[in-house]
Amino acid sequence: MRISVISLYALMLLAGCAGMTPEEAKVSEKQQLTDAMTSLRDGRPEQSIAQFQAIIDKADNDQQKTQAEIGLAYAYYKNDDFDEAYARCNLFIKDNPTHPQLDYVYYLRGLTKLKQGEIHLQRLLAAKAPTNDYPEELREAYDYFSELIKFFPQSDYLDQAYQQVDTIRQRLAKYELHLAHNQFALGNYKEAANHAEYVNKYYSDAESRKYALTIMVKAYKELDMPRQLNAAERQLREINYQQE
User: Quick check: 17 pLDDT over 50?
Assistant: First the structure.
């Protein structure tokens, strides 16, 4: 269905541009981009996909074409077609290494992986038993936002990238704590302690560390590990004191 819509829209564009002067065609291309963005803004991503693809297929102007390619990647993202959005971002980055909006495409690629990771994470959190599966997409998204921060320190998307990094850290901590809780419930106290220790070591927010230390205290009691128990209790007291 989507292919037929794209083909129909392309034919309409070709018919509309026939007989135009170069200046008129240039104005028409700009209007087509505006129309595609309007469709996207109005909640019609499938229509905007067809519009952007038609522009790409016929564009003579490299600037108009690359703008349409960026718009197309975003339209797929808004249409929840994250695999296609991700592929479009990667292709654009490969083909346009010096494009002035490359930082946005890096940001969009990170958002796409973040969405995939959140979907994966929700499925894992809904599982009642521990699993060896892991929301690797979240780690990939973390890497992509980190690349944006590294390669584009003056980017307008820098603040958002830092916020997304914090979000991903919270999501990953939540999953490690989920695994720790489930392992403790199953009596796998060493595994529970390992997951909780990871959160306590690598995640700095107080609530995640507080929950992790609580599990560690319980697990070390069951494992009869007094030295580790005392250290965890001391850290837990320090966090509670700081929050008073």
Answer: no
